[in-house]
Amino acid sequence: MTAISNRASARPAPSSTILSIKGLTKIFGGLTAVNSVDLEIPRQSIVSVIGPNGAGKTTFFNMITGIYEPSSGSVDLDGVSLLGLRPDQVTSAGIARTFQNIRLFASMDSQENVMVGRHSRLKAGYIDSLLRTKRFHESEKEAEDVANLMLEFVGLSRFRHELATNLPYGDQRKLEIARALATSPKLVLLDEPAAGMNPRETEELKSLIRRIRDDLGVTVCLIEHDMRLVMTLSEYITVLDYGSKIAEGLPHEVRNNPKVMEAYLGRGAAAGEYGKEEQLKGGANA
Prior knowledge:
Layout lengths: L16 E12 L2 E12 L3 E5 L6 H8 L7 E6 L2 E2 L5 H7 L1 E3 L12 H9 L7 H6 L2 H21 L14 H13 L5 E5 L7 H18 L2 E5 L3 H7 L2 E6 L2 E6 L1 H5 L2 H8 L1 H4 L5 H9 L2
Parallel strand pairs: 3-8, 3-9, 6-7, 7-8
Antiparallel strand pairs: 1-2, 1-4, 4-5, 9-10
């Protein structure tokens, strides 16, 4: 078995939808963090969810992945509802994610970190592990093989036996992506993957995300504040502000949308007081 089981023999029709979200809402006490958001993600696409700090983006991801239970609304993956599923069950259904704050096992090496991700697909259970059965050893070998493939895919083979905590920051981000890919997802959610990266690392990340879609056939949805990355990588963008969707469309449509400029830069931007370069810089720093 290989980790590249999602490789597509032919690109599906553009209208094919992998994730359908309708009216997704989350209320904490009297605060509405996400307000009736609809989103359709085409299969094998690269899409972004953006918005100023506090717009509800991570809460939105947390509802999709089962960390938070929505107050209302629906989340369907390939036509199957994800409501009420635990995070591990959402992973088994086909959604993997990374986090805004890197969550690696610092005392494990790179290979072991990625093997942890693969365990959601293994057949061996608790009894197999306890008794060290043949199924256990076969599963561990599969996890190791998949981990090595994913480390090679993200360019970290040379760090296979390096402790995660010793990796450069940008490589820790890649390692977290490798761990997510080891689950053989249909859809991967990346929460601010470029945070803290320098320009060279960001360009490498952009190339990696494209290869995830093109070579593995995995759909990618990312939350990101680096507007240059978003505008040059995304095929479709949804914009949240104060928990509500204020715009969606192609990158050039979103970039020139007055509501988006106002959300990031204030009313002066919407009135045309800033040039496009300043708009881009403002978005990158939001």
